[in-house]
Amino acid sequence: MTQHDHTHLRPWRTIERRASRKIRVGSVEVGGDAPITVQSMTNTLTADAAATIDQIRQLEEAGADIVRVSCPDEESTAAFSTIAKAAKVPLVADIHFHYRRGIEAAKAGAACLRINPGNIGSPARVREVIQAAKDYGCSIRIGVNAGSLERELLERYGEPCPQAMVDSALSHARILQDHDFHEFKISVKASDVFMTVAAYQMLAEAIDCPLHLGVTEAGALRTGTVKSSIGMGSLLWAGIGDTIRVSLAADPVEEIKVGFDMLKSLGLRH
């Protein structure tokens, strides 16, 4: 060992992560002192269980920690239990607006539901979904997108902006907290890198839950990699982010590779 190898003597090479509480996504821990996890999403038709399982297999081989699967309709949640049984990694069910899909996915073995509680209708429906998550041990990801903010926030701020995204995230979080549900993480994604980074910086100060990083529709393989690396890289460098997904218009396996390269280059995963 030469005197130049003393990595522990190089304070400028260590990233101090934001203190967040830890939650579980199935068998995987997210937040706190848990390693930053890398996620991707299947792009097969979920109702086609065989094709979806095949793609999950490829993602698992590439090292994916967690895989998200879209559940827009009943055919998808019907196939989900077969898919979940075959998967080795925890699955996140992406629920768009329909509360019943959330309940079905929880029963079918989802480890996490991506759902915005404020968007799924009446308080009774929200309560039902949260109860299903509690009953089946699901965590929840609140996924705020600049492109689909609540109308009253757009009226208040005039256009999508970091503060509007954070307000949206915190109002969804409040609904979960009011139901004594704390197993949640949040993402505030925009396709604009500046807006994304500013929103995550504000959110990191405002709440202690784990944060899921991503830049929306980052783009094709090269441009998407560059855009994600700039936005997510600067957040990770600042210690913000507990789980990441690089969104590319490419084979989802590429998303996993880029995600790990990003974490490796910052010394956050080895």
Topology:
Layout lengths: L22 E3 L2 E3 L6 E5 L7 H14 L3 E5 L3 H13 L4 E4 L4 H9 L4 E3 L8 H13 L3 E7 L5 H7 L4 H17 L5 E6 L3 H14 L5 E2 L7 H17 L5 E3 L6 H14 L5
Parallel strand pairs: 3-4, 3-10, 4-5, 5-6, 6-7, 7-8, 9-10
Antiparallel strand pairs: 1-2
Helix pairs in contact: 1-2, 1-9, 2-3, 3-4, 5-6, 6-7, 7-8, 8-9
Shape: globular
Helix content: 40-55%
Helix segment tally? 9
Named CATH architecture of the domain at 23-210: Alpha-Beta Barrel
Give the strand content: 15-25%
**Terminus-to-terminus distance:** 20 Å
The structural class is alpha/beta
* CATH superfamily caption of the domain at 23-210: Dihydropteroate synthase-like
Largest sheet: 8 strands, parallel
Question: Reading side by side through the largest sheet, how are the strands ordered?
Answer: 8-7-6-5-4-3-10-9
CA-atom Rg in angstroms: 18 Å
Contiguous runs where pLDDT drops below 50 for at least 5 residues: none
Question: What's the average pLDDT?
Answer: 94
H/E element order: EEEHEHEHEHEHHEHEHEH
Would you give the CATH topology of the domain at 23-210?
TIM Barrel
**How many beta-strand runs?**
10
CATH class of the domain at 23-210: Alpha Beta
Keywords:
270 residues, TIM Barrel, two-stranded antiparallel sheet, 10 strands
Characterization of the model:
This protein has 270 residues and is α/β, with parallel strands linked by helices. The chain has a domain of 188 residues: Dihydropteroate synthase-like (TIM Barrel), CATH 3.20.20.20. 44% of the residues lie in helices and 15% in strands. The strands form two sheets. Strands 8-7-6-5-4-3-10-9 form an eight-stranded parallel sheet.
